[in-house]
Amino acid sequence: MTAPSAPETAATADARDELTDGYHLVVDALKLNDIDTIYGVVGIPITDLARLAQARGIRYIGFRHESNAGHAAAAAGYLTKKPGVALTVSAPGFLNGLVALANATTNCFPMVQISGSSERHLVDLKQGDYEEMDQLAAAQPFVKAAYRVSRVEDIGRGIARALRTAISGRPGGVYLDIPAAVLGSIMDKETGDKTLSRLVDPAPRQLPAPEAVDRAIELLAGAQRPLILLGKGAAYAQADDQVRDFVESTGIPYVPMSMAKGLLPDNHVQSAATARSLALKKADVVVLVGARLNWLLNHGEAPSWNPDAKFIQIDIEAKELDSNQPIAAPLVGDIGSVLEAIAERTKPGQIAAPAAWREELAARSATNVAKMAERLKADPSPMQFMGALKAVRDVLHANPEAYLVNEGANALDIARNVIDMHVPRHRLDSGTWGVMGIGMGYAIAAAVESGKPVIAVEGDSAFGFSGMELETICRYNLPVITVIMNNGGVYRGDDVNPLETDPSPTTLMLAARHDKMIEAFGGKGYRATTPAEVTAALNEALASGGPALIDCEIDPSAGTESGHIAHLNPKGITVGNITPAKK
Length: 583
Ligand code: ADP
Known about the structure:
Layout: H1 10-17, E1 19-21, H2 22-32, E2 37-40, H3 47-55, E3 59-62, H4 66-80, E4 84-88, H5 92-107, E5 111-117, H6 120-124, H7 135-139, E6 145-148, H8 155-167, E7 173-179, H9 180-183, E8 186-188, H10 189-194, H11 210-221, E9 226-230, H12 232-236, H13 240-250, E10 254-256, H14 276-282, E11 285-289, E12 310-315, E13 327-332, H15 335-345, H16 355-377, H17 385-398, E14 403-407, H18 410-418, E15 427-429, H19 439-450, E16 454-459, H20 460-464, H21 470-475, E17 480-486, H22 514-519, E18 524-528, H23 531-544, E19 548-553
Parallel strand pairs: 2-3, 2-4, 4-5, 5-7, 6-7, 9-10, 9-11, 11-12, 12-13, 14-15, 14-16, 16-17, 17-19, 18-19
Antiparallel strand pairs: 1-8
Helix pairs in contact: 2-3, 2-8, 4-5, 4-19, 11-15, 13-15, 17-18, 17-23
Bound molecules: adenosine-5'-diphosphate (ADP).
The site of adenosine-5'-diphosphate has 23 residues, from helix 12.
């Protein structure tokens, strides 16, 4: 909105009160549906939309890159069970945001990306408009649904449709295209207000059929080595009491996927996280609770899994079933309702995990925990991942309200094993794609949505994808402490280019001082070379409550190529044996 060219008179003010426009209708529709925060990057044609949202009491968090704003919206959706909203400009801004929207869809997080777009008649005839692109078509393959609003009177409907689609059934990413001309269209306010609606029961419960529940109970009742696998769908469902009751009343050991850590505290007596390989290899009946049998679970295949294992899958999305292994007892519904139905229909004592199985897993856990304790005791110099991460673990134990964001290769794999969680939905990580770049976006959303401190454990390479958002963190004075595992490289920092011309493909600057970056924006920077220094810096930063960054100097030879997933690299004849070209 440009500044009025002439002083406002009573007559023009009255006229304005009787009219509305696309901008106002978008903001009013979002507010009507309890959207209280928007994450975005402004520019043509959505700058005034952000201004107006802010003026009307919606919190607007402005980022430096749309991917990071999108990742923040996705994390907000996961944490709050309400669609996170990202706002982007046309074409390039939209495309930047689309990465996050696709990632949200892959992770089953509810998110809506609202993007301005250029003049439809120019775009459709490819006349070469400013930031010309058919954004609706571009978004389609990557999202749960994509919609366009072509008339100002459809804005309310478009927003309602986008929000419900994102949140209901399996949550996911929705794209909503609003051309500039629609935002700028004016209509009578009274008529416009009538076009808006508030969603009734946006994510209805989905109850399983009784016979499906009985089938699953019978299968579990006959199991010798039952196992529960908790995934991030279970964390998202916010059915924490039902999950705990199911686990504890049946006595079945459970393994949490990384973002389900903390749903029950990691030191729970039934946790088989520290006997994971044995649990998967031997379980005869497995209950998947909001977890998919995808690559993260080796597709349910031997030798990682017992080839005779039978699966019970609790999922809100029927088409997920049988995607990798036959599902002997499908339970389609929302996790809270399904677990309640199981509890209601199970006869007393009907399901009980045999003691021998529990003891076998407990014994393996004890051995593995002792081995890990030995490794954690070592405090070599230069500092290794384990030493730095143990320091983070201990500070988190003392501050369980703090959120943990985690990405990287080794920084992710080792932190997942070393840092246990005690509170539901307090760990946000690279997720289903194993993506890099979510770090600062997720951290900002966790701080904004919860008001609690956030510790973002980042590989130095992973941090680079969203590092400029340090400025955003400082601008909003958020309690985000970024802890960088700086070993000077992608995977590790000691690789060499045999031709000695340029740095090797995996080399980053070993001497990089990320702590200086945050100081440029007024945050507090620390450099840590020992675990004791990491502890001291973290405690000081938490006590200050402001933005901080701890650059941990890690041994450049620490870390393995691709972390725990090196087997996914294709094996040509040259891998591990690359020789320089002959002169
Ligand atoms: P993880 O990576 O932790 O194993 P996934 O993202 O693979 O978890 O799986 C999450 C699953 O949870 C998805 O298949 C999704 O459809 C399902 N899901 C999400 N929300 C719910 C819910 N409220 N009730 C039931 N299933 C859900």
